[in-house]
């Protein structure tokens, strides 16, 4: 097939998916009382999996848009379902980030998880395997299996180890995601039947579908992907989930899980439904701008540390969808890079909040003040995350937002102008947060706190390094996506529906 490169040899992608699952099965055999051994095994498995992901980074061919490290085997022949894996320049960075974030989640949870320690680390490893599976799958049925499998351990992380309202937050997360996923499943079945009974994503992307079909499929996929992003107005599960989740759960949500919605638009909506995607661009740009401004304004009213950062994710992911649906090179590459950037920055912010929460057991901003005077190392690291979040030049946040605004202005000047106001609002709430927590008068809860230890510094420093690496030399990461993005934009712009115009098709649907 034209879009596929078959790589024979070591099944590296399968190993990256199932090695954490194997590690979780090993932990099942360890006695629950041997908590130290459980932690070290979980850390060892996560480090090894990250090490196994490095060959992807080293051996990836940036000069082609074709799928690489492909594995393809018959799975359920009667339904034409394949075990089909592969990655391109869009998916590779998310696999690397997933593997890295898992290590940091194990480290930051070392002392904070007191109950059901074995089950907690089993859940972390299972989430990792499912996340990587989502980004590798090239068969729609397989993709859906991983997409749904990820829900179970994530539900447990929130519902078992979360805060006082954890059951409510976990149920809300599960129901929102499940409803969207069911509608996506309907869309997958329609594609399967229309295309001659194939779940092969690459083969499906070579076909031309009637515009009326594209229109309804776009909204079926939108239901799943918009909830996951989360886009306005289906975002309300995210603040509750972030607020109640343990630190590791918040980091996984922020760094990886909400990126899967935007990844879905890139992998499925745009290449499979190009005409509908172009027709719906004004709607998507409008929702993106609303999310950027609304999320920022809501942040100004928050009194809970985690809830503020959660709403900031709504705003920042609005930039991502704005870049993607600008449908030009600058916007789309900026959107993909900003997905990685947001995972690094917001993941780092949640790691930082978790470190201080373990000491004070409060998330209320009013309980803090003067942290900089007692925790100077922690305060220095946190200001890096803060400045990256507001897009200071030389940090990764600046590069992503700059590219998105370039693409946004090229697509729609009003969208670009309104999105730019979101950066100003973002600077306001993040700097105000830092002022209240780290300066002002030292509160009673802060006085006498110990600074972060070596384990916590090790957990935070990879994020700091990546902030400056991407901010100073972004081409290390942009180079992976150039060809894949170019090919995707070409597919969207040349995709046609029997020569009819968008306006004609819209009128036909409205009759």
Short description:
The protein has 511 residues and is mainly alpha-helical. It has 23 helices and 2 strands.
Fold and architecture overview:
By secondary structure, the chain is mainly alpha-helical. The chain contains 23 helices and 2 strands. It has helices at 12-29, 35-59, 92-108, 117-136, 140-149, 151-161, 166-194, 201-204, 211-228, 237-244, 247-257, 259-272, 274-279, 281-299, 305-324, 329-360, 371-374, 376-389, 396-411, 413-438, 454-472, 475-494, 502-510; strands spanning 68-76, 81-87. Strands 1-2 form a two-stranded antiparallel ribbon. Helix 18 (376-389) runs parallel beside helix 21. It is globular and about 65 Å long. The two termini are 39 Å apart. The model is unreliable at 496-511 (pLDDT under 50).
| Strand arrangement, major sheet | 1-2
Q: What is the distance, rounded to the nearest whole angstrom, between the alpha carbons of the first and last residues?
A: 39 Å
> What is the β-strand count?
2
Which spans have pLDDT < 50 for at least 5 consecutive residues?
A: 496-511
Mean pLDDT: 87
Largest sheet: 2 strands, antiparallel
**Helix/strand structural class:** mainly alpha
What pattern of helices and strands is seen along the backbone?
HHEEHHHHHHHHHHHHHHHHHHHHH
Based on CA inertia axes, which overall geometry fits?
globular
Please report which band the strand proportion falls in: under 5%, 5-15%, 15-25%, 25-35%, 35-45% or over 45%: under 5%
**Helix count, DSSP H or I runs of 4 or more residues:** 23
Radius of gyration: 22 Å
Query: Helix amount, in percent?
Result: over 70%
């Amino acid at each position: 097939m034209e879009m596929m490169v078959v790589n024979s040899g070591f099944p590296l992608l399968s190993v990256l998916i199932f090695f954490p699952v194997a590690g979780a099965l090993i932990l099942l055999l360890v006695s629950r009382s041997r908590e130290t051994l459980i932690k070290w095994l979980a850390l060892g498995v996560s480090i090894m999996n990250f090490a196994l992901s490095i060959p992807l980074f080293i051996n990836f061919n940036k000069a082609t848009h074709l799928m690489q490290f492909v594995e393809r085997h018959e799975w359920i022949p009667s339904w034409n379902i394949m075990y089909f894996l592969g990655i391109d320049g869009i998916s590779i960075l998310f696999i690397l980030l997933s593997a890295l974030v898992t290590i940091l989640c194990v480290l930051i949870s070392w002392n904070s998880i007191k109950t059901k320690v074995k089950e907690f680390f089993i859940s972390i490893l299972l989430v990792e395997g499912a996340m990587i599976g989502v980004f590798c799958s090239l068969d729609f049925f397989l993709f859906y299996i991983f997409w749904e499998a990820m829900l179970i351990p994530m539900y447990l992380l929130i519902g078992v180890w979360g805060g006082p309202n954890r059951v409510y937050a976990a149920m809300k997360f599960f129901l929102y995601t499940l409803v969207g996923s069911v509608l996506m499943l309907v869309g997958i079945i329609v594609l399967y039947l229309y295309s001659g009974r194939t779940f092969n994503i690459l083969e499906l992307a070579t076909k031309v579908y009637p515009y009326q079909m594209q229109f309804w499929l776009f909204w079926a996929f939108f239901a799943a992907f918009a909830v996951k992003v989360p886009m306005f107005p289906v975002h309300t599960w995210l603040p509750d989930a972030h607020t109640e989740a343990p630190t590791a759960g918040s980091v996984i949500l922020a760094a990886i899980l909400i990126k899967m919605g935007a990844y879905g638009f890139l992998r499925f909506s745009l290449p499979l439904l190009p005409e509908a995607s172009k027709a719906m661009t004004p709607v998507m740009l409008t929702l993106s701008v609303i999310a950027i401004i609304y999320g920022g304004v809501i942040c100004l009213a928050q009194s809970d540390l985690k809830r503020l950062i959660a709403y900031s994710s709504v705003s920042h992911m609005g930039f991502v969808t704005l870049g993607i649906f600008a449908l030009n090179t600058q916007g789309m590459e900026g959107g993909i890079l900003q997905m990685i950037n947001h995972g690094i920055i917001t993941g780092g912010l949640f790691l930082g909040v978790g470190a201080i929460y373990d000491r004070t057991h409060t998330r209320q901003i009013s309980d803090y003040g003067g942290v900089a005077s007692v925790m100077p190392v922690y305060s220095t690291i946190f200001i890096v995350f803060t400045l990256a979040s507001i897009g200071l030049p030389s940090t990764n946040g600046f590069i992503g937002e700059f590219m998105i605004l370039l693409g946004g202005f090229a697509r729609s000047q009003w969208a670009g102008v309104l999105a730019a106001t979101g950066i100003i609002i973002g600077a306001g709430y993040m700097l105000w947060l830092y002022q209240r927590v780290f300066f002002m008068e030292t509160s009673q809860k802060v006085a006498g706190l110990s600074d972060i230890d070596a384990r916590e510094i090790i957990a935070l420093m990879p994020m700091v390094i990546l902030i400056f690496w991407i901010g100073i030399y972004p081409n290390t990461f942009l180079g992976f996506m150039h060809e894949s993005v170019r090919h995707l934009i070409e597919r969207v712009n040349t995709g046609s529906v029997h020569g009819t115009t968008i306006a004609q098709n819209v009128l036909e649907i409205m009759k």
